[in-house]
């Protein structure tokens, strides 16, 4: 089945992943309906519930701190009888006990409506307190992993330094062997693993935790497709916190590079925003919804039925991006359009069987490649000033809706077979499956007619923009780290940046800008 297993590290990531799983749930079809274009077996696992009935739950591991799960319980309607922990604990102690209970968290009105099977109310940034407040999916109890050593938003023991996460992983792994306890049961259920997708924040302690987790995976499993979506807070913060986030981010970029097959840094909120996007920058529910557009759309080819590369799509996309080299860090962005408007303005807009069209294309003699409205790659003011128009080495596009006629893609595919054609290598995947706007999704897109689904153009690129950002990060980190770690990390970042400059010099850049 070529399964994909997901790992989620931290509160910010779990907001994003909740949007992702809600969208996957919306693709399910039932008796009497047309078969879904999405192969659910890739991301969902079959099982048996407490009552003996069949279940279908995400192939995911959800890590969060104490207090981070909100109203989500490890046991749910599918597995209520599986873990009678309270009775077990009571039998081990014959003396008197004084139970200490935290005040219960009341379910959101949205969750109450889902449980009752009624129409859920409209969510707002004020009513979403936790990511579980808008969750629409049941998870297997093994998916829920609470790290009780730290509490969410604690001022006494904040979980914000990279070294704190690194130390926590090592302590837990020494005591429990986290891969055997948590990950291996999900891997053993897979017939033929396509890859892992890892979601983590990279500017706090979760960056250290995820980096060491991924290192252990590499040691145990060897090579494989491991796509890391690394989240960085793009909001303005106090100077001291900004310095800490920069140091954490530098350590994550360096540590993850050797263990991720593709690393996709995402910064939210980006600036400037396109006119069709209205965003509450302080609401994680809002910002994670934007991240979900990119993450869910760019990985869509790995889950679709009947594609030419459906069995090894992660590997195929990696081959395009890396071009058999060491460029694992990629920039990301996307554009959004009303699908009706898009269809009306696309040349040659006729019917096309475009569940998925795959190919490799090259652009024209001027080395032009298509761009997006919104860039999510983390930048700084120094990077913006130093970086001229970036040169694109490779690019992957996932198009949802009628962005390009099939004839154009086929013509590009024919050109791609010519080994002497120069220019960026661009892999294009086009699907008729649009991005759905669910009741759990915030109303951040402003289009006439309020469409219930959207056309998306999502891109990943390797370019000289990565070199500029990594060099800027290396310069900033030198003044923020101790002597021992500074030499290894900063020298490593400098070497990493060189990978995105190889074969591309100023004379080429000047010719490109003429």
From TrEMBL:
Its main location: mitochondrion. Keywords: Mitochondrion. One of its GO terms (cellular component) is mitochondrion. Residues 369-384 have a biased composition (Polar residues). It comes from Extremus antarcticus. Involved in the partitioning of the mitochondrial organelle and mitochondrial DNA (mtDNA) inheritance. Residues 2-116 form the Misato Segment II tubulin-like domain. Residues 120-304 form the DML1/Misato tubulin domain. Residues 338-387 are annotated as: Disordered. It is found in: Mitochondrion. Pfam families: Misat_Tub_SegII (PF10644), Tubulin_3 (PF14881). Belongs to the misato family. The keyword Disulfide bond does not apply. The keyword Mitochondrion applies. Coiled coil: none annotated. InterPro entries: DML1/Misato (IPR049942), DML1/Misato_tubulin (IPR029209), Misato_II_tubulin-like (IPR019605), Tubulin/FtsZ_GTPase_sf (IPR036525). This is MtDNA inheritance, partitioning of the mitochondrial organelle.
């Amino acid at each position: 089945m070529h399964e994909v297993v997901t790992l989620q590290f931290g509160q910010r990531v779990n907001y994003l992943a909740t949007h992702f799983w809600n969208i996957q749930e919306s693709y399910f079809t039932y008796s009497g309906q047309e078969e879904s274009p999405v192969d659910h077996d890739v991301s969902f696992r079959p099982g048996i519930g407490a009552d003996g009935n069949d279940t279908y739950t995400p192939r995911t591991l959800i890590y969060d701190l104490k207090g981070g799960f909100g109203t989500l319980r490890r046991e749910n309607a599918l597995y209520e009888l599986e873990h009678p922990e309270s009775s077990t604990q009571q039998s081990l102690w014959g003396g008197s006990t004084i139970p200490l209970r935290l005040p219960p968290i009341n379910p959101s009105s949205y969750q109450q409506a889902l449980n009752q099977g009624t129409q859920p109310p409209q969510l707002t940034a004020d009513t979403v307190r936790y990511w579980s407040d808008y969750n629409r999916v049941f998870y297997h109890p093994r998916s829920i992993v609470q790290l009780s050593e730290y509490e969410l938003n604690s001022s006494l023991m904040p979980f914000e330094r990279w070294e704190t996460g690194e130390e926590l992983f090592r302590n837990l792994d020494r005591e429990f062997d986290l891969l055997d306890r948590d990950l291996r049961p999900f891997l053993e259920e897979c017939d033929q693993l396509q890859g892992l997708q890892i979601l983590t924040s990279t500017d706090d302690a979760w960056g250290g935790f995820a980096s060491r987790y991924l290192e252990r995976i590499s040691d145990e499993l060897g090579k494989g497709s491991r796509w890391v979506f690394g989240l960085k807070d793009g909001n303005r913060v106090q100077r001291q916190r900004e310095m800490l986030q920069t140091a954490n981010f530098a350590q994550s970029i360096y540590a993850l590079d050797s263990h991720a097959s593709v690393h996709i840094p995402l910064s939210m909120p980006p600036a400037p925003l396109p006119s069709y996007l209205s965003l509450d920058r302080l609401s994680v529910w809002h910002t994670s919804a934007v991240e979900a557009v990119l993450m869910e759309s760019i990985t869509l080819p790995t889950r679709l039925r009947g594609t030419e590369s459906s069995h090894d799509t992660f590997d195929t996309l990696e081959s395009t991006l890396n071009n058999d080299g060491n460029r694992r860090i990629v920039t990301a962005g996307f554009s959004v359009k009303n699908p009706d408007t898009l269809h009306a303005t696309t040349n040659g807009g006729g019917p096309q069987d475009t569940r998925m069209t795959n190919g490799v294309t090259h652009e024209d003699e001027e080395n032009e490649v298509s761009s997006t409205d919104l860039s999510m790659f983390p930048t700084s003011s120094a990077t913006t000033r130093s970086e001229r128009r970036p040169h694109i080495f490779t690019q992957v596009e996932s198009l949802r809706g009628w962005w390009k006629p099939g004839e154009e893609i086929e013509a590009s595919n024919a050109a791609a077979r010519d080994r002497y054609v120069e220019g960026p290598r661009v892999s294009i995947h086009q699907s008729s499956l649009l991005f759905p706007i669910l009741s759990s999704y915030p109303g951040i897109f402003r289009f006439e007619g309020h469409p219930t689904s959207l056309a998306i153009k999502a891109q990943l690129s390797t370019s000289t923009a990565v070199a500029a950002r990594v060099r800027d990060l290396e310069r900033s980190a030198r003044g923020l780290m101790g002597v021992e770690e500074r030499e290894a990390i900063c020298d490593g970042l400098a070497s990493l940046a060189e990978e995105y400059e190889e074969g591309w010099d100023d004379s080429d850049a000047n010719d490109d800008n003429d």
